[in-house]
Amino acid sequence: MSPLNWQRLTLVGLVALVLAWLVSASLEGSGTTPPHVPWTAVAFSLIAAVCALWFGWQVRRFLAGKKPDLSALRAARTVVFAQACSYAGAVLTGAYGGYALGLLDDWSHGPRREVIISALIAAGAALLLVIAGLVSEHWCKHSDEDDDRGEASPA
Q1: Per the domain annotation, does 11 fall within a domain?
Q2: Contact status, residue 106 vs residue 80, Cβ threshold 8 Å
Q3: Among 134, 96, 97, 136, which residue's Cα sits nearest to residue 9?
Q4: What is the pLDDT of residues 49-86, one digit of tens each?
Q5: DSSP per residue over 32-95, as a string?
């Protein structure tokens, strides 16, 4: 499994931002009232971020030798979960940011301003999900220094 890189996550987020901006701008131009971003979207992102960090911390303790009962399968699942959190967070950050960007022309209108603010709060929570996934994946990396130290290379 290849590790995450910030370039790919940025590209995914930018594609989602552009698509969400196009959709929200076209819906707003047609007179549709934009809905608020539900608070459950923020709660989901924050709960998933905490879970990713918790699972990653358990694997980090295992790699440090402080939690010997953790299975390798659980460690592998933690890496997959961390990467999924980062990708989902990148998509959601871009989507909520694009939604807010598409409505930005109506900032002076009070109800639309509330929708923009709710979208920006959700984008911030999704960005925390990206960061939590990246940190968790980093904690799951095994250092190869121990493996290389004991073996002499052939001359």
Answers
A1: no
A2: no
A3: 134
A4: 999 999 999 999 998 888 888 888 998 999 999 999 99
A5: PPPPPPPHHHHHHHHHHHHHHHHHHHHHHHHHTTS-TT--HHHHHHHHHHHHHHHHHHHHHHHH
Contact by Cβ (8 Å): 87, 9: yes
Which conformational region is residue 36 in: left (phi greater than 0), alpha (psi within -120 to 50 degrees), or beta?
beta
The count of structural domains within the chain is 1
Find where tokens 């990148």 sit.
90
User: For the residues 122-150, what does the mean pLDDT come to?
Assistant: 82
What is the value of pTM for the model shown?
0.85
Name the token pair of 148. Answer: 């290389």
Residue 114 lies in a domain: yes
